[in-house]
Write a structure and sequence with these properties.
Jelly Rolls, Arc Repressor Mutant, subunit A, 2 domains, globular
Length: about 325
């Protein structure tokens, strides 16, 4: 079982009545048909549906508690991303099938005519991204508007792409569990942007080749403008598009510039700046400085303290408290 689970406070419905569950799921996503495979009869448990809203994101967690085939009858042009939390899920499209166990990430659109085969123990996390939002962020990457909307090829994320997705969804699940973080709408918009940009940069679609082919060279002044903007706004919940706009360039050009200059990404560079700033604060021995470690982290733009502690230890080989004590 993975750490991308939504908290129990998000439980929307628990019932053995499939008709009642269907009505709730259709309100969340789209109309669908379902059938119980004759070849796999067996006991069943309650259908459990968790759902919450955080800014533009509405993650939902579903377990049907039985062997069942689900076929959406339309997704309104949106992209549906399914992350398997436990059990196994098989997604069958017009000409292909793929799936797997915990950590599997599957993409589907209504053009794929997907059918999802759940096992009794299967539980998944679902996110839906509207077409207009995907298009907007793709045009930001390209630095221009294209005639054709983005069309993802139905696929399962693999390797580093899947791992990065799981990290982002873990952050999402932790954020909606924390009242202090879930009340910050701008963080939700930033995370939604990161999720969509990750898909646009790593997953096959009709504009992917153009994204990698059409990035102009970034002028030094724009690159340095981006670096200065980050340093001056570490405490803000910056997104890639915020930085690109401040630098006066496209997000893709900015990403390529940081790749060439430091073999990194703008957001990783931002994290490095934040970690270095926290470390400098913790090494300050001025008796008038009485900021706690948590306050120092939040002052430098870290909103999730658990993730901050992990990143700090990975970067410096010691905990923030060890840095502060000088041991």
């Amino acid at each position: 079982m993975l750490s991308q689970r939504l908290p129990e406070a998000c439980l929307l419905l628990q019932t053995e009545d499939m008709a009642l569950a269907s009505a709730s799921i259709e309100r969340l996503y789209a109309p669908f048909s379902w059938r119980l495979p004759v070849s796999r009869p067996g006991p069943h448990e309650s259908v459990r549906i968790h759902s919450t809203s955080w800014g533009p994101l509405q993650p939902s967690m579903i377990g049907y508690g039985r062997d069942i085939d689900i076929q959406p009858r339309g997704l309104g042009g949106a992209l549906l991303v399914t992350t398997v939390l436990q059990g196994r899920l098989l997604q069958s499209n017009k000409s292909d099938s793929f799936g797997g166990g915990p950590g599997t990430v599957l993409l589907a659109t209504e053009d794929d005519c997907p059918t999802f085969r759940y096992g009794r123990q299967t539980e998944v996390l679902k996110l839906v991204f509207p077409q207009h939002r995907i298009n907007t962020l793709c045009w930001e990457l390209l630095g221009r508007r294209e005639r054709q909307p983005v069309r993802f090829e139905a696929a399962a994320l693999n390797g580093a792409s899947a791992q990065r997705w799981l990290e982002l969804v873990t952050y999402l699940a932790a954020s909606v569990s924390s009242p202090a973080i879930s009340g910050t709408g701008r963080l939700a918009h930033g995370l939604e942007e990161m999720l969509v940009l990750h898909l646009l940069s790593t997953t096959p679609h009709n504009h992917l080749e153009t994204i990698f082919r059409s990035s102009p060279t970034l002028a030094p002044r724009e690159y340095h403008r981006a670096c200065a903007y980050m340093e001056e706004n570490l405490h803000e919940p910056l997104t890639l598009l915020d930085i690109a706009k401040a630098a006066g360039c496209s997000a893709r050009s900015l990403s390529r510039a940081f790749q060439h200059a430091h073999d990194t990404t703008p957001m990783r560079h931002l994290t490095e700046l934040r970690l270095q700033r926290v470390r400098a604060l913790l090494q300050t021995h001025d008796h008038q400085w009485n900021m706690t470690i948590a306050q120092a982290a939040m002052h430098c733009g870290f909103s999730h303290l658990g993730e901050f502690h992990q990143q700090y230890r990975r970067r410096f080989g010691e905990s923030p408290s060890q840095t502060r004590s000088g041991k």
